Amino acid sequence: MPNSSSSSGAGTDIGFKILLGVMAAAVPLANLAWLGGNLTASLTDTGPWAPYEPTSALLQPERLWPETAETSLLVGTRIAPLSLLLLLGVLAAVLWARHKKGSGKTKAVAGMAKRSDIEPLLAKQITAKARSLRPSLKDAKTIAAQDTGILLGNLAGTRHEVRMGYEDVAVAIMAPRSGKTTCLAVPAILNAPGPVLLTSNKAANDAYTASIDVRSRVGRTWSMDPQQIAHAERTMWWNPLADAITLDGANRLAGHFLAASVDASQQGDFWSKAGSNILSQLLLAAALDERPITDIMAWLAFPADRTPLDILRDHGFAAVAAQLKGTVEGPPETRDGIFETARQYAAALLNAEIAAWVTPQKDVEEFRPADFVTSRDTLYLLSKDGGGGASALIAACADSVMRAATAQAERAGGRLDPPALAILDEAANVCKISDLPDLYSHLGSRGIIPLTILQSYRQGQKVWGDAGMDAMWSASTVKVIGSGIDDPDFADKLSRLIGDHDVETTSTSHSESGKSTSVSMRQERILPADAIRALAKGTALCFATGMRAAMLTLRPWYAEPGAAELSAASARASKAITERAVAKAAPAQSGFTAAA
Known about the structure:
alpha/beta
């Protein structure tokens, strides 16, 4: 039933509030007047210290200090106290404004998570959790914040830091230029306690340049840049066939070439499946015979070459050899179509510049994932959007690192300490690991922390299909949603997940007996879909398992302490990329001019 109150009750309430306001100003002013009057009398030597009567000091100062001059009393009991009170008020307002600025510009949203609702993500509990997860921290007297988890931001309207722990797995969906790199990827990389893997399609003025200087101080930095996004010097090579000496390993490697070339909706058709199978069989043969991966291109060009068949039989893979033989000796039209499909998937290996990163190189060190996961090194995997086979190699390398980390965790008792961080930025463009949604179900429990960053939910559906993206979403223990969500269905889904809350509605009616006011409660969406679409840059929604949705104020790396030094290092790294690009372009330009 609604509650009602008369107009006289409403008037009393307003009068009471006015009285409180007057008292809030009068009480300190009267006390300051009493103190000021005593100080004035003492300084002018015109009277003793008066008894404590603040009201009289404010209203009748001459009664307490009859010998003091009227002008002196006016200054000491009226002007000076009032000025001091105003000054204190201004100072309090400035301090409050600074406090609000320090705690973030984002205001708390009624109905969303308060501090008590997300305690497991705040300092006390996240630190206790870190002690239980990491044996190396068990007896530490103090634990640095970065050792407890990955900073996501501040709880809106507060200074409370919200962190995901080192057993969480996360998905971030944020539009371009909404802070996904500056507020999530870079801070996570800079503060990671263990090895870090980053995939990206950009280098200059991005996570690569912002972090490479800092990470080079804690371990070695490896850069795999087959398409020369950062124009990095080739100081490493990686053998993708190291994990392909089993049929499962070869199938996984072939699957990366397939996923990089076609969307999830097309991967089940006959030609795609058959092309992937042939690729898998040839990769297995090359791995067993310890050949470079580029040898498969010669076998794909000449299907009649019996070398892979002989290798498979010699190593006990008779059934696989029989499958390959059946395809080779099948109808020419079908065989040629299958082999052409496989050639298209692996076409990037024809590029000598790309192939050099995945074949043995003289005087260049081999990158070994098993060694990397026990270090504090950083691996930068760079590829252009739509890189085809090149992005397949990036995905395969990232997959190999995560599998090596899983194996190391099992040897270490079940969990890596310190944990390994995998920042899969632009994952839907350059790191299409087909079974990534399935890996999410166990990576966190191994101390391997993936953070997959997407531009939209639909982008994930395109790569992993509806079921795969739903599985990744469900398996993620932390989900971060930034600004720029323009998908109405997804925005409405988020709105429903945030839920409803009670809103007080006041209505007023007039009658002969006077005015009456009634108050009732109704339910409405805490954050409707249009409000989610209009999220301001620098804010994000956080959905953590078993907790209410929270509004976060993001914290970009360039606004943190030490940002000036980091910005200078980033600028130097970006300049170096430009210089390398110009140096490479100069010979080509001079050759073109000479030919002309």
